[in-house]
C-alpha cells in the first residue's frame, strides 16, 4: 500500500484503531486476558472492559505493540515505508519520514523486525542452493614503507605543514579514524567478518542465519532443520564445510575457481540474495553490529519471501496483532535457579520497621 492510499484510507486515528481491531478480532471482540466474549462497548480512550475478569484492555494488549505510546496511524505509515524499501532504510530516514525522535524510530524499526520474525517458512524442497557470505568491513591494508619514495615523502611533509599553517585541520574526524589493524587478517577467516549462511529454493523462499562458525556439523544441522532431505537436491560451491553433506542429501558441488554455471548447476539464486543483503548493509545501514545482525537478516529474508505478493503491508499488520508471549513467563526447567541475593538493608541488618532477630546473650 502506497502512502497516498494510506492517507486516504486512514485519515484519522480512529480509522487506524478500527483497522487494527478488524485484523485482531475479525469474529468479534474477545478479552485479551481471559478470552471471554462478554466485554463492554469501547470506551472513549479506546479500551474495553471484560465483564468476566473485570480487567481492561485495548487492541494492542499482549501484542508486539503492547503499551505503545505511538499513534497507531504512525505505525501504519511505518509499516508502509519499511515494507516498500526493498533494501531497507536507515532509522534516520524513518525519523525524517515520520517526524519522530531518532530513538523512537530505531525502536520502532526493531519492533517491525521482530514482527517479521513471526513468519514461518515451510521446509525447502526440490532444487535448493546453499552458500555463505561475510558481513563486516574489510580491514585496511597496512602502509608499506617502500611504496612511498623519498621525494614523495618530502612533498607530503612539506605540503601538510603548509596547509596546517593556513588553518586546515587534517586530523581524523568522527567515523573516519583511518586506523590500520596490522594483526587482522583480510578475507575468509578475518576476525572482523561475521559469517552468515543462507539456503534458497529456486523460485521459492530463502532462510538465512548468522553463524558463529562454518564447521561441517553446523552446516549439516542447518540443512536438516530447513530442507526436506528426501525430496531435494542441494547445490553448493566446493567449500570444505560441505564435503560430507552428501551423506544426508543429494548434493552437487560446482568449483567457482573454474566456472560458475554448467547445465543449470549454479548458485546464482543465493548469490543474488546476498547481493541484496550487501547493497542494503553497505548502502543503507553502513554498519551493523553483531548484536542486531540477526534482526537485519530476518528483514531481508521476509522481504525476499514476500517479493511476489502485494500484501506485505497487510501481512505486517496481521502479524503485529498476534498474541506475544512475554519472555518473563517462559519457563526453562533446565535453567538452574539463582540463589536469593540480599538487599543492602538486609546486609546491614536493617529490615525496615522490623528489628533483626538476634540471639539472646548468655549471662556467662
| Topology, number of strands | 9
CATH class of the domain at 124-137 and 188-305: Alpha Beta
Q: Helical region count?
A: 11
Assembly of the depicted chains: single chain
Structural commentary:
It is a single chain. The chain is an alpha/beta fold and 364 residues long. Among the domains are: 3-116, no CATH class; 124-137 and 188-305, 2-Layer Sandwich (Nucleotidyltransferase, domain 5), CATH 3.30.420. Helix content is 35%, strand content 13%. It has eleven helices and nine strands. It has helices spanning 3-9, 13-24, 72-84, 91-98, 102-116, 150-165, 216-226, 268-285, 293-305, 312-320, 344-348; strands at 48-49, 56-57, 124-135, 194-201, 206-210, 227-236, 250-253, 261-262, 265-266. Helix 4 (91-98) packs across helix 5. The protein is flat, with a radius of gyration of 28 Å. The protein starts with a helix and ends in a 16-residue tail after the last helix.
Amino acid at each position: 500500500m502506497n502512502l497516498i492510499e494510506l492517507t486516504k484510507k486512514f485519515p484519522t486515528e480512529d480509522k487506524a484503531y478500527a483497522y487494527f481491531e478488524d485484523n485482531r478480532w475479525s469474529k468479534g471482540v474477545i478479552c485479551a486476558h481471559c478470552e471471554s466474549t462478554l466485554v463492554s462497548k469501547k470506551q472513549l480512550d479506546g479500551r474495553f472492559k471484560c465483564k468476566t475478569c473485570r480487567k481492561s484492555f485495548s487492541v494492542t494488549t499482549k501484542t508486539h505493540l503492547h503499551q505503545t505510546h505511538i499513534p497507531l496511524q504512525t505505525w501504519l505509515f511505518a509499516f508502509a515505508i519499511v515494507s516498500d524499501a526493498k533494501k531497507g532504510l536507515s532509522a534516520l530516514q524513518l525519523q525524517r519520514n515520520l517526524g519522530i525522535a531518532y530513538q523512537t524510530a530505531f525502536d520502532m524499526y526493531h519492533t517491525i523486525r521482530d514482527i517479521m520474525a513471526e513468519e514461518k517458512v515451510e521446509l525447502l524442497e526440490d532444487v535448493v542452493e546453499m552458500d555463505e557470505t561475510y558481513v563486516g568491513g574489510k580491514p585496511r591494508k597496512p602502509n608499506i614503507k617502500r611504496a612511498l619514495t623519498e621525494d614523495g615523502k618530502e612533498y607530503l611533509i612539506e605540503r601538510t605543514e603548509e596547509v596546517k599553517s593556513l588553518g586546515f585541520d587534517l586530523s581524523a574526524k568522527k567515523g573516519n579514524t583511518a586506523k590500520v589493524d596490522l594483526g587482522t587478517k583480510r578475507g575468509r577467516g578475518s576476525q572482523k567478518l561475521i559469517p552468515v549462511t543462507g539456503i534458497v529454493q529456486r523460485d521459492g523462499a530463502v532462510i538465512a542465519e548468522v553463524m558463529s562458525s562454518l564447521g561441517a556439523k553446523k552446516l549439516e544441522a542447518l540443512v536438516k532443520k530447513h530442507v526436506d532431505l528426501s525430496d531435494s537436491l542441494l547445490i553448493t560451491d566446493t567449500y570444505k564445510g560441505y564435503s560430507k553433506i552428501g551423506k544426508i542429501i543429494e548434493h552437487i558441488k560446482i568449483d567457482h575457481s573454474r566456472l560458475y554455471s554448467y547445465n543449470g548447476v549454479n548458485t546464482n539464486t543465493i548469490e543474488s540474495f546476498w547481493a541484496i543483503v550487501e547493497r542494503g548493509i553497505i548502502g543503507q545501514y553502513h554498519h551493523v553490529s553483531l548484536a542486531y545482525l540477526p534482526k537485519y537478516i530476518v528483514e531481508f529474508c521476509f522481504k525476499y519471501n514476500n517479493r511476489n505478493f502485494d500484501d506485505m503491508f497487510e501481512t505486517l499488520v496481521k502479524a503485529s496483532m498476534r498474541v506475544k508471549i512475554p519472555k518473563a513467563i517462559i519457563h526453562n526447567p533446565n535453567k538452574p535457579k539463582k540463589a536469593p541475593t540480599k538487599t543492602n538493608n538486609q546486609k546491614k541488618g536493617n529490615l525496615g520497621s522490623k528489628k533483626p532477630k538476634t540471639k539472646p546473650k548468655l549471662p556467662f
